[in-house]
Amino acid sequence: xxxxxxxxxxxxxxxxxxxxxxxxxxxxxxxxxxxxxxxxxxxxxxxxxxxxxxxxxxxxxxxxxxxxxxxxxxxxxxxxxxxxxxxxxxxxxxxxxxxxxxxxxxxxxxxxxxxxxxxxxxxxxxxxxxxxxxxxxxxxxxxxxxxxxxxxxxxxxxxxxxxxxxxxx
Length: 169
Known about the structure:
Blueprint: H1 7-17, E1 18-24, E2 30-35, H2 37-41, H3 44-56, E3 64-68, H4 72-83, E4 87-90, E5 103-105, E6 112-120, E7 133-142, H5 147-153, E8 157-163
Parallel strand pairs: 3-4, 3-6, 6-7, 7-8
Antiparallel strand pairs: 1-2, 4-5
């Protein structure tokens, strides 16, 4: 695993994907700045660079990738294309029609899987996975609001391309 990205790349991410707030969080809190993963995913050059940087954070023994819908899907897909690793996508709840699945895409059972997401705040969304051997989570932005501690309590290491200089927003 390589160290976090260089400042110019972090600045490029910030220029494209950060938006000024205030923005309301699901828990009722607010942020002064918002990381918009869709702006990052919508920029082909930046998405390609981000996928390569995220791939550098993957442990050598990674066998599969998984990420939550919706914002994690383009990141997981891009890193999958960059690395050739199979990808799966995690729904918040099982689909209520068709196959009734909560995990779509590649079969994860027994594979050493890395969870990928755009942002980590508390880390709770990164814990929704079953059947895979998960030891690592990787994200673009760590808001430094407890995700590292929560995930460590579940024996998961968190690696981020960028740490929020604003701390626990």
